[in-house]
Design goal:
Elements lengths: L2 H10 L3 H6 L3 H4 L6 E2 L11 H12 L8 H19 L8 E4 L2 H11 L7 E5 L4 H8 L4 E5 L1 E2 L4 E2 L2 H9 L4 E5 L11 H13 L3 E5 L20 H6 E5 L13 E5 L2 H16 L4 H13 L1 H25 L13 E5 L9 H8 L2 E2 L1 E2 L10 E5 L4 H16 L2
Parallel strand pairs: 1-12, 3-4, 3-7, 7-8, 8-9
Antiparallel strand pairs: 2-10, 5-6, 9-10, 11-14, 13-14
Helix pairs in contact: 4-12, 5-12, 8-9, 13-15
Bound molecules: pyridoxal-5'-phosphate.
């Protein structure tokens, strides 16, 4: 058995009991007979180089405050990774540590946008976006994506109209959680022209960018044109692809000097006091040494995605499902099944599977659910059987 097959066999062998014993959100929130497939984390553990780096940090008491050289190392490693993986050339000095992507978004909202400027959110979206914007005083303007019969796409006319009506920024998620779209250069360019026309801003959340399936390429939004670079602020992180969300380390990437100048005034508070030292060590190991493990994981995830697609085609053809181009999240539009809403709650009760309710992803999505397929394939098979049985016996 080759190394990849060996790793995949070890993923297959992880049991629901072991996952529950971790005592974390995905497997610890619902009753014991419920299978966890909601919050966006993977069940596969962490890459060996990351484990080694964390053990080294603990054994050598590297758990104090972050030093400036360590921050510089993180910024340089991030810039090198973005160049190598996505062909995006950024200065290391334009990259800065953040505890997480939501903090990077908060930074953009507080310091780089006019107070109270409404923000466009293409929906369905990552669940907390809508409330988070509202809580920070930026009215969220939901613009649903459109399905053209083959795939979801941004509603450019709707976005244009929302800017016309006074929105100051757009919150882009690329790859798009939860619909799994990896936007093409042409799509992003078209968006950037609309944003530029309105002299507006984009926050580009690229947290899922390392998780791309064969035949697709992640294009960083800020890299599509000088105009996009001038109006974008980007957030990246190793947390989704290497499963490190509890370690609190993401990166904000500035692609214009004005934004960088503003950030320099507040940098100390935002990075020194909130990013985690262990998170930086883990991220360094991920970016510098973690790509071989990631390639094996993406291959396994692609197998899960294809398994899911085949299951839905055969057993639940009424569900509209586009195989994701990236991310390990699947968006299931169950409108044709005419089921009670919110559908996620119904499935928790009747299938004992915990999915994310589409209603949390934007207005009008109560007939949809988001399924996290980053789980051992035997568990994926089991939870799909449970869902199909619940639908069939209703
Ligand atoms: C698109 C997207 N953005 C942001 C986050 C949250 O990231 P963080 O924990 O770094 O704030 C997630 C988590 O699932 C996500 O999927």
């Amino acid at each position: 058995m080759g190394a990849r097959e060996d790793l995949h066999a070890r993923f297959d062998a992880i049991t629901a009991g072991q996952l529950r014993d971790r005592g974390l959100e995905k497997w610890g929130t619902h009753p014991d007979d419920t299978l966890g497939a909601f919050v966006a984390e993977m069940d596969f553990g962490i890459a060996p180089p990351i484990r080694a780096r964390l053990l080294d940090a603990v054994e050598n008491a590297r758990t104090g405050y972050i030093s400036r050289p360590l921050l510089r190392e993180l910024n340089a490693a991030t810039a090198a990774f973005l160049q190598r993986r996505h062909g995006w050339q950024v200065e290391a000095s334009h990259v800065h540590a953040m505890p997480d992507v939501m903090k990077a978004l908060e930074t953009m909202l507080r310091f780089h946008l006019p107070a109270g400027a409404p923000v466009i959110v293409p929906t369905p979206c990552y669940m907390p976006f809508i409330h988070f914007l509202a809580e920070l005083g930026h009215a969220p303007v939901q613009v649903p994506v459109r399905h053209d019969g083959t795939r979801y796409a941004l509603d450019y006319a709707g976005i244009d109209a929302a800017f016309d009506a006074g929105a100051g920024a757009l919150l882009l998620c690329n790859p798009h959680n939860p619909i799994g779209r990896v936007y093409s250069r042409e799509e992003l360019l078209r968006l950037s022209e609309i944003v530029e026309k309105h002299d507006a801003r984009v926050f580009s959340d690229e947290i899922h960018a390392p998780l791309i399936y064969a035949g697709n390429t992640h294009v960083p939004y800020a890299a599509v044109s000088p105009a996009a670079a001038a109006h974008a602020i980007t957030a990246v992180s190793a947390s989704k692809a290497w499963n490190l969300p509890g370690l609190k380390c993401a990166q904000i990437v500035f692609s214009n000097d004005d934004d960088l100048r503003i950030f320099k005034r507040i940098e100390h508070h935002l990075t020194q006091s909130s990013t985690s030292t262990l998170g930086i060590f883990a991220t360094l190991a991920a970016y510098d040494q973690g790509e071989p493990w990631l390639a094996d994981v993406v291959d396994y995830l692609q197998g899960n995605r294809d398994f899911l697609a085949a299951f839905l085609r055969e057993r639940l053809p009424q569900i509209r499902f586009d195989a994701p181009q990236g991310t390990y999240l699947a968006w299931l539009d169950c409108a044709a099944l005419n089921l009670p809403q919110p559908l996620g709650a119904w499935l928790r009760e009747h299938a004992r599977v915990a999915l994310t309710d589409g209603a949390f992803c934007g207005d009008g999505f109560g007939h949809c659910v988001r399924l996290n397929f980053a789980t051992p394939r035997p568990i994926l098979a089991q939870l799909l059987e449970r869902i199909a049985a619940a639908f069939e016996t209703r």
